[in-house]
Specification:
The protein is mostly helical. 73% of the residues lie in helices and 0% in strands. It has helices spanning 7-26, 34-41, 45-51, 55-70, 73-76, 83-103, 109-133, 142-163, 172-191. This is TetR family transcriptional regulator. Residues 33-52 bind DNA.
Length: 197
């Protein structure tokens, strides 16, 4: 087992991630082998396996790292889920999806599905942390907060992903207006304990 804090380990992992990203730009995920990644990173296969179980584990880490780099600190550490925070999460998610599909060759449904699920999950966790910190959940129990986050993260992701394929996809202001209205009105009912009648 490698020491994750060792600077040499950190450098090697970064070499592997960088090599993988370069390969994704040139080929599809399914065509990339561990041998390809090792050659691109100028390491041997044994070194790769000392750091990652397989290319799926590497994809998982690269996706998570990209997500954390995408979310600014003031959004990740927000104390309340406001309209502004909602807007930023919508725009950041849309930009992440655009960048991902532009940079990576998506010829693999399994890769696209893994990345989609990972981003939805991390977006949901980020939103849940904000809900739990904020005053917006007065009166709501933790179960309601988790349900609200479970609906909000995928709703934002789904709308941002859908927006890629419409004619006016550059009109992100319209995307934000539509999604914010849906999300914030829905949250008002769930988080505050209101019921639809």
């Amino acid at each position: 087992m490698v020491n994750q804090e060792d600077p040499r380990v950190l450098r090697t992992r970064q070499l592997i991630r960088t090599a993988f990203r370069h390969l994704l730009r040139r080929r599809g995920f399914d065509a990339i082998t561990i041998k390809d990644i090792a050659q691109e990173a100028t390491i041997n296969r044994a070194t790769f396996y000392a750091h990652f179980e397989d290319k799926y584990a590497l994809l998982d880490e690269v996706t998570e790292q990209a997500f954390h780099e995408m979310i600014p600190e003031h959004v990740a550490n927000a104390q309340e889920f406001t309209d502004e925070i909602c807007d930023q999460l919508i725009l950041l998610t849309h930009q992440y999806i655009v960048d991902f599909y532009r940079i990576c060759r998506i010829d693999s449904n399994s890769m696209a599905k893994l990345v989609d699920e990972k981003i939805k999950k991390m977006l949901q966790q980020t939103i849940e942390r904000i809900f739990l910190k904020g005053d917006t959940h007065h009166g709501a129990d933790k179960h309601h907060i988790k349900i609200a986050a479970a609906m909000t993260g995928p709703a934002i992701y789904g709308a941002a992903h859908y927006w890629l394929n419409i004619e006016e996809k550059d009109r992100t202001d319209e995307l934000v207006d539509i999604v914010r209205l849906y999300v914030m009105n829905g949250l008002g009912c769930i988080v505050n304990g209101d019921e639809y009648r």
